[in-house]
Design brief:
The protein is of the alpha/beta class and 577 residues long. The chain is 28% helix and 16% strand. The strands form 5 sheets. Strands 1, 2, 3, 6, 7, 8, 9, 10, 11 and 12 form a 10-stranded mixed sheet that branches. Strands 14-13-18-19 form a 4-stranded antiparallel sheet, with no helix packed on it. A 3-stranded antiparallel sheet has the order 16-15-17, with helices on both faces.
């Protein structure tokens, strides 16, 4: 069956099943869209059609809720009943004040001194193809529901933007009104030149990078580091690349880690650590495809160390971490795994999904860049990415200021005076335990006396798993404790003060869950020279993000249908969609 035939068959079946479910389920008016999707689950086992039908119904609920949320005052009361998701400022703020946000925040500090190939960066797939921005053809089949700002507030530190060179209201007449913009589309060669199917009135790259810079400039984000993945769909046009480079320079150029000037296309420095890059003044590392002109002085190509796949639904199916790591050389590669939730991919049989179980497996095996679609504040995959702290740990009890790994492979805060075996780093970077149980402050001495380098703490989920394999049953001390300022830091302090004697504090990395974060300020966007007005798309907290006025809903849906009919069969399968 061809892609076009699958699309038509799936669409017809989708419509018939939606009508059947909505008209035969009792008390349908009292149900949410999530209930309808759940009722469809038995049909998902039907080969070829079943998964497309149920997935399509789910996406129809997303589309309806998307436009509900554009109406003032409905996002907290009415819209969650359509798709079963709370997508509003109250929900984002609640996540920020919860355990998962704090655990992810503490966890990010543990891999800042290891190579990027040993680090974990949560990212969103097609971050800017989001219903939070003004409607367009692309965003009516969106990967995301939040602005980039709100994604960052939920712990995302990897942002992906597909950059196209296409006519746009923000474009310069001298360039035939073309502008580097985000779009989830596909270039198609025609006798009149290349057109970008699916692109319409999308966000200019400069607006999105301004939004990113505004978040980075917030005082509470002063030590944050972001990986920016720019997928280059700029038609090998040097003017397009120079315009895109100018957008980068004017927004984040002064805080981007750069390739060697004039060195041509250079590979992503995956052997470097985040702290090494930060020590050189960087807050952003940019990667993508190689390109001409000024682009190569700002963007690293992914290179041979980059390994990616969108087939995440069955991650580890019939395998285990050891086999998976060996098959794809996790030790030396930078591993990206992502999902694709769009309707077009679903109908083509190319869609994929990251479940909470898959999220936990990816982290445990050491995936560096796991990617999510449809990220939202109540997303149960976010806590699944916590490989370190046990739920609701660490507490604020001053008498429990030292971390130990338990037999569940999770961290817990204990009384530092307890005597336990200590986790030690070996000369080859592996793990060993001290022969004797010792108190926490004796960790380094005990490890060195046992012939090892020093006391240690895991840097990532795979490292944590390797420690548990040699630890067996029971708790083992980690070189991780609360310092005099109340912050959780790696290492054993040289001071004679026992961490258990200090009072819990609220340092920048150990925030009180009751503290309400400052709202991000509004990025500044200039009025386009061609007179296009600026629309008021918003973050969940109501602050504006400067985006251009786009197409109304009806035109957007028509565009999706046209894209389905004409461009889907032509989609390239060898690049991220």
């Amino acid at each position: 069956m061809t892609h076009r035939s699958k699309l038509r068959a799936g669409t017809v079946a989708l419509g018939l099943t939606a009508v059947l479910l909505l008209t035969t389920t009792p008390t349908a008016s009292a149900q949410t869209g999530g209930d309808v999707v759940e009722a469809c689950d038995p049909l998902s086992e039907i080969p070829e059609v079943g998964g497309r039908v149920c997935g399509g119904i789910e996406r129809l609920t997303w589309l309806a809720a998307q436009h509900c949320r554009r109406a003032p005052g409905l996002d907290e009361v009415v819209c969650p009943g359509i798709d079963g998701r709370d997508i509003n400022e109250a929900a984002v703020a609640a996540f920020e004040g919860g355990w998962a946000a704090r655990a992810l925040d503490l966890q990010r500090d543990l891999d800042r001194d290891v190579p990027l190939t040993d680090s974990l960066t949560l990212h969103t797939h097609n971050s800017a193809n989001s219903t939070a921005y003004a409607p367009s053809v692309s965003t009516n089949d969106a990967n995301q529901v939040l602005t980039i700002t709100d994604q960052l507030r939920l712990g995302i530190r990897g942002i992906e933007i597909d950059v196209h060179w296409t006519p746009n209201p923000a474009g310069d007449p001298a360039d035939a009104f073309r502008e580097p913009v985000q779009c989830h589309g596909e270039p198609v060669a025609t006798p009149l030149g290349t057109i970008h199917g699916g692109c319409s009135v999308d966000q200019p790259l400069v607006d999105l990078l301004t939004e990113l810079r505004t978040w980075l400039d917030q005082p509470e984000n002063a030590d944050e580091f972001v990986l920016l993945y720019l997928e280059n769909v700029l038609d090998d046009d040097e003017t397009a690349h120079d315009d895109a480079a100018a957008s980068i320079e004017s927004t984040i150029g002064d805080i981007a880690f750069r390739p060697t000037a004039g060195g041509g296309c250079q590979d992503l420095p995956v052997e470097r650590s985040k702290n090494e890059l930060v020590s050189e003044g960087a807050r952003v590392l940019i990667t993508g495809n190689c390109g001409p002109g000024a682009w190569t002085d700002l963007v690293f190509q992914r290179g041979p160390s980059w390994n990616e796949s969108g087939g995440t639904t069955d991650y580890l199916a019939g395998s285990d971490c050891d086999a998976e790591r060996a098959a794809h050389d996790y030790d030396s590669k930078f591993i990206r795994r992502w999902e694709d939730s769009t309707f077009l991919s679903l109908m083509a049989g190319a869609g994929s999904y990251v479940s909470p179980e898959v999220a936990a497996a990816m982290v445990a095996c050491g995936v560096n860049l796991p990617g999510l679609d449809q990220l939202h504040p109540g997303d149960d995959r976010l806590p699944a990415f916590v490989w370190s702290w046990r739920e609701q740990e660490p507490g604020v009890d001053a008498g429990r200021a030292c971390a130990a790994q338990g037999e569940d492979a999770r961290f817990g805060a204990l009384d530092c005076a307890l005597e336990l075996p200590f986790a030690c780093r070996t000369i080859d970077g592996g793990w060993a335990l001290t022969a004797d149980a010792v108190s926490w402050v004796q960790g380094d001495v005990a490890c060195q006396t046992s012939g090892h380098v020093a006391a240690g703490v895991p840097a990532n989920g795979w490292d944590n798993e390797l420690l548990r394999r040699i630890a067996g049953d029971g708790d083992v001390w980690l070189a991780y404790g609360r310092n005099a300022e109340g912050d959780w830091v790696a290492g054993i302090p040289t001071t004679t003060t026992d961490p258990g004697d200090v009072k819990p504090g609220k340092g920048p990395k150990d925030k009180d869950p009751k503290d309400k974060p400052d709202k991000p300020s509004k990025p500044k966007t200039d009025e386009p020279a061609n007179g296009t007005t600026v629309a008021s798309a918003r973050n969940a907290d109501g602050t504006d993000v400067g985006v251009r006025r786009s197409l109304p809903f009806g035109v957007g849906v028509l565009g999706v249908l046209l894209a389905s009919a004409f461009f889907l069969p032509k989609r390239r399968r060898d690049r991220d969609s």
